[in-house]
Specification:
Elements: H1 2-13, E1 19-28, H2 32-41, H3 52-56, E2 60-65, H4 89-94, E3 99-101, H5 114-124, E4 128-130, E5 137-141, E6 144-152, H6 172-182, E7 188-194, H7 205-217, E8 221-225, E9 233-236, E10 239-242, E11 247-249, E12 260-269, E13 272-284, E14 287-290
Parallel strand pairs: 1-2, 1-11, 2-3, 3-4, 6-7, 7-8, 8-10
Antiparallel strand pairs: 1-12, 5-6, 9-10, 12-13, 13-14
Length: 295
């Protein structure tokens, strides 16, 4: 009886696991009109001013970086080639972005050297990158190791005839192996998925197959983007899937819903996914604002 009481006392004395808040954002494009506004305002972080606090106060903040950095211009083009000036990292730094996905259909927009240069610029700013880098990202917060992986359905973007092996593609078999390998070193795995049909408000079969395969492989969360509009989320098994968070920092205005996105706050208690909260994003002239949490 004394032994049982002692064990019970020790169990009660153990501290409750701390809460870790991970904030996930969608597509961030730092070229074209976003760059032009920054130059006009003489403020490279102009587009991040109204959302910075929400991301900066998170334990971990993630977005998809839709534009590689380029050592030379042009930095403003009306076509679908995004080349960001390295000074535009100021917005990411203001918002306290910890990790970005560099695997998307614009990964190669800055030419053959763009991938390596982008990783160099991010590393100099102490921003981790996943999707075109090796090894995968592992960041520790409150004693919990968070691993990040990123994949894209396309990297050619109509401009290339072959694939660059540095850009991770949405191959479910390769991804499952990557998740399994990362789980040996990380407590929680978050997978970034750049896929889907642009401007469609529902996920396609490829998105569903890949995202569910990630959870089946052991990932806790899948953060989707690329459609440029928000799509539904899904509780699948023990994980969370955000099929598309839509745009976060972007200059699109010609189509419905492209100026509306989502930001997801995912809370972990120790190593366990506890709950999540989703806030709407409204973009006005490349500047996003956050609304109140959705019910």
């Amino acid at each position: 009886m004394i032994l049982l009481l002692l064990v019970a006392s020790l169990l009660c004395a153990q501290p409750k696991p701390e809460i870790t808040r991970v904030v996930l954002g969608g597509d961030v494009m730092l070229a074209r009109h976003v760059r032009a506004n920054a130059v006009r305002q003489k403020d490279a972080a102009f587009s991040f001013r109204k959302i910075a606090d929400h991301f900066r106060t998170a334990d971990l903040a993630f977005v998809n970086l839709e534009s590689p950095f380029a050592a030379t211009g042009p930095y403003f083009e009306e076509r679908m080639v995004f080349r960001a000036h390295p000074s535009m990292t100021e917005g990411l730094l203001l918002a306290g972005i910890d990790v970005v996905s560099t695997a998307n259909n614009h990964s190669r927009d800055a030419g053959p050297q763009g991938i390596a240069y982008t990783l160099e610029v991010l590393a100099n700013s102490k921003i981790a990158a996943t999707g075109t880098s090796d090894p995968p990202v592992i960041l520790e917060r409150r004693g919990v190791r968070f691993g990040f992986l990123a994949y894209t359905f396309d990297q050619r973007n109509g401009n290339h005839r072959d694939d660059d092996p540095r850009v991770a593609m949405t191959d479910p078999i390769r991804m499952a192996a990557d998740v399994a390998a990362l789980k040996k070193h990380a407590d929680i795995v978050i997978v970034s998925m750049h896929a889907g049909w642009e401007y469609w408000t529902k996920p396609n079969a490829h998105q569903v197959k890949f995202a569910r395969a990630a959870i089946d492989a052991g990932a806790a969360v899948v953060a989707g983007h690329h459609p440029h509009v928000a799509q539904p989320m899904e509780r699948y098994r023990d994980g969370l899937i955000f099929y598309s968070l839509g745009n976060l920092v972007f200059d699109q205005a010609e189509r419905p819903r492209v100026h509306q996105g989502l930001v997801a706050d995912v809370l972990f208690e120790g190593k366990m996914l506890q709950r999540y909260e989703v806030r709407p994003v409204r973009i006005r002239n490349t500047v996003p604002e956050l609304g109140t949490p959705l019910p």
